[in-house]
Write a structure and sequence with these properties.
By secondary structure, this protein is an alpha+beta fold. The chain has a domain of about 60 residues. Helix content is about 40%, strand content about 15%. The chain is built from three helices and three strands. Strands 1-3-2 form a three-stranded antiparallel sheet. The protein is globular, with a radius of gyration of 15 Å. The termini are far apart.
């Protein structure tokens, strides 16, 4: 998270503009319209954000990282041109 000055916290690449949220696997699956197995395959391939441990046998994803992943997919599409064009 960012500090009061808006600077990025250690390990972050930039200031966070809103409060960070944890998303469950179900939330992530619904957001990106991918199955659980596809999400974990992409994580293993380093093509999707890794989850963080939130407790015994529980993980969650950072909302900002999932949103960045989604933004990157949109940018890829826009660089290649619309599939429907």
């Amino acid at each position: 998270m960012s500090n009061a000055s808006g600077a990025a916290a250690p390990g972050r690449t930039g200031p966070i503009k809103y409060r960070e949220r944890f998303l469950s696997r179900g939330d992530v699956s619904q957001m990106v319209d991918l199955s659980k197995s596809t999400i974990y395959r992409l994580v293993a391939e380093k093509s999707f954000p890794s989850p963080v441990s939130t407790g015994a046998k529980r993980v969650a994803w950072l909302e900002s990282e999932v949103m960045q992943w989604m933004d990157a997919r949109i940018e890829e599409r826009d660089k290649k041109g619309s599939l429907n064009a």
